[in-house]
Amino acid sequence: MSIRYDLYETPDIQQTGEQQPLHPRVVINGTIDQNEFLDRVHKFTGISRSLLSGAMQSFQNELRDLLANGWVVELGDIGYFSVSLQGPPAMKKEDVHAQSIKLKNINFRPGTQFKKEVGWQMRLERGESFNRSHGKGRSEEECLTIVNEYLRKHPCLTRADYCRLTGHDKKRAINELNAFIEQGVLMRYGAGKLVVYAKTME
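Now predict its structure.
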């Protein structure tokens, strides 16, 4: 197997008007969800699927608790997890209170050896992203076919999944997903950044 890349012109940040050099970006194949990931590990190791699922949940719970208590967590050669904070701008320490500080992000820094191994494993070939190869994008019928095919293999999809699969931008993706909901094809679950879409229950 190989990883595909496409070439994009670097943004002209200085606004010189001159042609900018090209840089490569990965053409994403899709998203491997937790169930498929566990299935793959089970297939190649023979470790019980239920044991893997339980271990994954235990890792997640312990990682959550350690990060929430200020630890940096190393997961073998995979790398390190840590958290960063954000708060209001202030010039004096006494102007900042704990209630005004919150989580900014969960950070991941890959281990040096793991990063090298990923690089050694990569086999690159030229490809094109959906955004560039389909001009104005796909028709609604084509998009619905893609969605149905995706949902045969996965329990749900996100707006980001839809953008990746169809090549449509965020605004168009939301409009089309809402149209599918109105048609009774899809149902929306969750709220905010946790929204997912699934087939309407028969």
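The mean pLDDT is 86.
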